Amino acid sequence: MNNTSFLDRVFHLKENGTTIKTEILAGATTFMTMAYILAVNPMIMGAIGMDKGAVLTATCLASFIGTLLMALLANYPFALAPGMGLNAFFAYTVVMSMGYSWETALSAVFFEGVIFILLTLTNLREAIFNAIPMNLKKAVSAGIGLFICFIGLGSAHIVVSNEATKVALFSFKSAALSGSFYTTGTPVLIAILGIFITAFFMIKKVRGNILWGILASWILGMIAEATGLYIPDPSVGAFSTFPQFNGLASLLPQSIEPVFMKLDFSQVISFDFFAVLFAFLFVDIFDTLGTLVGVSQKANMLDKEGKLPRIKPALLSDAIATIFGSLLGVSTTTTYVESAAGVGEGGRTGLTAVTVAFLFLVSIFFSPIFLAIPAFATAPALIIVGFLMFTSVATTNFGELTEAIPAYITIIAMPFFYSISEGISMGIISYVVLNALSGEKKKISPLLIILAIVFIAKYFFIG
């Protein structure tokens, strides 16, 4: 038996209209767009006293395990890693603001994973997924598109914060006058060029266009740095584009011992701990469901009823990965919206996820290379993927206002509130309220009503 037939039997490549080459390219693209977590997660967790090197190794291992589970159990091209937002909540809210130790916070993540497994085995998470109306599912995909785009614009500093207007376009004039153009302005220019390069590759139907766009932007960054057109300054988040090697030692994995199996269960019986646990649960449940809805809808994986086949093993992979992640020493491991980048490249099966998992494992040994990928190189990919996701708005029903207004709210809430879960929350609340007031009660399932009540209660009691 040759490798092609073996992989086809395992991942059903022909059945899903894909090839080994397409899947590997898709996996590499997904990994490149989410490799930033290797730099960001140790930085965030290090702020609360966790060993950065150990967190880097734990991040790689948790991502490897979670993504491999998704590949083997569900055969989907979705990648998992410690979630952005959840890691910030873990560090800055639970530890810094509420005063819990990071060991206690890890125990909350552990219990979250256990509860997720129970919810998945009892079909509750699947029922929630299926309860979301089809029009809202399309809106979730479009909303995630805008959200991803906004992340990309922000990471490249094309869009910056502004006291007067909240957000604004990066000012090249101000950068030039302040003498920081070669540090702050050049990356923005390269990111903009990267968008055009990636779009051109896409128009010309170049295979691996998003991945090639990332590599082209990265190469432009290295050329700019070598010629003095880009001057790194870590104090303002402008890092070198060249891998930093410090001998063979830099290629060896950092010891995981400082964070491995350090959970502390001594404070789990308290109201505050329950509030923390519920917050982890709420955000992860609906971030994961939102990602699965949006990415699978764009990849045409949903059936005629808007359901995702094999959703139970997909959700189970997410839950098991969270437990393993807590034991390894990282915050909640969750399905990444950047999986859309691989789907945009044609990834349709678990072989894409296996590729991502393998690259996360390899990055333990070659972390200097992957950590050198600058944000301005991956930003164009996120912006273009955002466009691909947003196209689902074309099939969204805007002719019926009880469908259109909740869809609109869902779409705009994600980028404006910087949260997939908030978009789903707002969308479901508005869908239930508007259809109830309009006498369209047949469109509202009991579970949808319960979800709306839970969401409203969350805003009053959790925030």
Automatic annotation (TrEMBL):
Major subcellular location class: membrane
Cellular compartments annotated: Cell membrane
Swiss-Prot/TrEMBL keywords: Cell membrane, Membrane, Transmembrane, Transmembrane helix, Transport
UniProt GO MF annotations: purine nucleobase transmembrane transporter activity
Keyword Transport: yes
Membrane topology annotation: Multi-pass membrane protein
Membrane-spanning intervals of the chain: 24-48, 54-73, 85-102, 108-128, 140-160, 180-203, 210-231, 273-295, 315-337, 349-373, 380-399, 405-432, 444-462
GO CC aspect terms: plasma membrane
Nuclease as UniProt keyword: no
Family affiliation: Belongs to the nucleobase:cation symporter-2 (NCS2) (TC 2.A.40) family. Azg-like subfamily.
Name of the protein: Guanine permease
